[in-house]
Every structure is written in C-alpha cells, then in structure tokens.
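Morning F.,

Quick status update on the modeling queue. The single chain you submitted on Monday has been processed. Sequence for confirmation:
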Amino acid sequence: MVTPPAGASVSGTSLITRLRISITSGENSVPAEVTFFSVGQGDCTLIVFYGSDPQQGEAAVLVDCGSKSEIDHKYNGSDPKKDVRMHDHITDEIAARLGRLKNPNTLDYLIITHPDEDHYNYLGYLLFHEDRKRLLYSVRNVLHTGKTTDFTAASRESFPAMRTVLEKHAEYETVAGGPAFLSPPRQIVRQVVAPEKLVEMPVASGSAGEAGLYLIAACTGRPDPAQGAKKRKTGTRASGELWPPFANRGRREVAAKRKAAPSYVYDPNREAIALLLLGQSAAGKEQRVFLMADTGEDVERLLISRKTGPGMRKTWMTWLKAGHHGSRTSTSDAWLDFIQPDGILISSGTYAFGGDGGIPPLSKMNEMLKTWKALPRKPVTVRPNKQDRALPEIGYFADRDEDLERGAFKKNFRTEPGIVGVFTNLVHFVEKPTKSDASYGYDWQLKIDPEGANTYTLTYE
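Structure tokens below.
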C-alpha cells in the first residue's frame, strides 16, 4: 500500500517526498542487525551477527564511538537520570546485545575508522568498567588507521584515552578475568586494494559464501601497494595539483595549505576505513550496507574505479551510511549512481561545522536528493515505533548561499517531514536546551535478511 506523496519546501525549494509502505514477512532468522546510535555530533555503529537463533548473537563488531556534543534520545525511558545521559543509553543498549552473544561480552572487532575525536572519544566510557581499570568486554581484534600518537583527544568522563588503550593494550584485563585484548591492535598503513572479509555472516543453511563484513577502503591517500615498492613522490605534480588532493578540505583551507607548504599533509578523513556489509544471496540477489565513515568523494572515486569484488554490483536492496555526516565533500552524484542506494542514513549532530560536516546542508541535501530520486529504487519500509508512529523528521543546515559562516548554524537548523529512504539521527535542535525542551535524536536499527534472504526491517527508537 502506498500513500500519495506530499511535498514540502524550504525557500521555495522542493525537498522531499513522503511515502508509506507495508511490511513483508517470511522465515525466522536474523543474520545481521545494524544499530546506528545517535551520539550527538559523532559516530557509533554496532553490528551483531546471528545464526538460526534470533535471540543469541554469533559475533559482534563495534565501529567507532565518539561525540563532540551530546543530545538526548527521543525514547530514553522513564529514568530521569538518563534523560540527558546519552552515553548511559548507548552503554545499556550495547551491554544488552553483547550479553546475549553465544560467547557473552565479546567483541570480535573494535574498528576505529580514523583518529578524529567524534569517532573515538567515547570508546573508553563504553568499554571500561566504572573503576576505569578493567574492560567490560573481551576484544578479539582492533582495527584502526593513524598512529597511536594521532589519538590526541582525551576520553570523555576521564576514562583511559584511546592512545593509552592502544599503546598499553596488553596490560588490561576484563571484569571476568583474563586479558581484555586477545590480539595486538592492527594499524592499517597501506592503501587497501582488494576487499578483505573481516567477519563471516552465519546463516541457518550453513556457509554464507560471500556474505559478511568487508574492509573495502582505508589509507586511500597512500601509494597503491600493487604498483610495487616504488613510492609516489609527495609535493606538487606537473599540473601543480597536490598529491594526494585535499578532497576533504574546504577551498580556502586547500589554498592556504598550497601556499604555505605544497606537499602532502596527513588527512585522517582520507585515510578512514570504509566497510561493506553483504547479506545472504537468494536467486542471485543480496543486500548491501556501505559504512563510509568520514570518507569523501576521492574514496568514492577509487571504489568506483575498482568496479569488481564482492558486493560491488547492485542486485537487491542497498543501504548507505553517508560519508562525513552528509557534508558537501561526500556522497557524490557519481557514487550515488554507482551504488544506487535505496536508503541513506546520515549521522548528524549539533556541532557547528559551518555546514561542512556537523549536519548536511540544504544545498547538499537538495543536490543529493535530486540524484537519489532519479535512481531506479525500491520503496523502503519503516516499521513504526510503538510510542510514536509518525515517521521521524530529518534535520539539516538551511544554508542558502552555500557559504554561511559557522555561527549561523544555530539560526539555520531546520527539519522537514520524514522521507522514507533518507534518515538523520538528529531530528530536534534547541540552542539552549532545558530538561523539558532539549535537542534529541533517534537510533536507527536495520536488520538484514531477518526473515530470509532479501528481507529487512528498519525501525527507529
């Protein structure tokens, strides 16, 4: 069943189409559950893999957790202590899921996509016991880009800083006893040139084949190791273009860096880890979830150029967690056309980036949605929340000349009625929140193949 679309506009610009769709049913299995937590300004994603038992997870992966500015969760429960304690909510949710694993309280992977504090400075709070000495969970593998000295931000709430955790991993134990980190952290130091499967997706019928979680990009600014030992020179090329190009930087910043030092400058966004979750295959169809961290158009171009590999061709539903919080430097038309996403999730918060990173600006949303609406997409189903059946709004930065100053953010935050297929974590913003009226957002939960191959459920809570 489809309800006729209703448009909405900002400054005369048509921004959205609103749809309502029915839910399908099928077999009882939950191969993968992806929770996009609302962390204010930052990123945090938990992936739990299941076999035939939907109540007991087989493996779990935590991708990032950091925040520059906290917000409430719309559905935090009745405990008043948690109304403004975003991290308590996330800690409880992660603890509940990891407690139900076949090997309880074990993370198969902790992935820190890059050393920007809004991607890691809450990890200490989530991982450590309140004594700040022992970990709540065992961690089988740690994957990160950047040197340990790049993790300069202090951990929130005075828990051990991520640099300390990475450098002294062998000294930590869990609350249950035994080593907390079961293998040394792995730093990616060279460009990823072929997908690497990190976690096999268990399925009821046995081998999952290609299904699983893949590392598809990292250290994109480094020379391609497939070219041999010869290193590409840094500095200016004949064209005068910097190598690597500053694709994730603003025009003024690029110009300043070119003038000051025409050489390669480390860019953590360009080095960030991008992941692909690939679902079960039935009748040659499989679902995909791209987790793009803070990568920009340069990483997208690299992935487009490769074309081959597991999951690089669309055969069924595709979900995209947009790069760099929906900023202008990511989610290009070419990338949208290449992966053809059916749904786009945007991690957004209240921190002001002048419309370049904290939350998608209107100019980018209009550009992105124009391309996205033209794609041959399948209708997306959103399962209503029991407490509020209205589809959540989307939040964005209402720039009009595409170059508003940073301080204009708070005056130009806007929301629109929900779009089935495009979702943001932040849906309500108050400049000076009180307990009764505060900024808040939603967690989005996507289950891949929950009722057999080619099925999904998408909920907000």
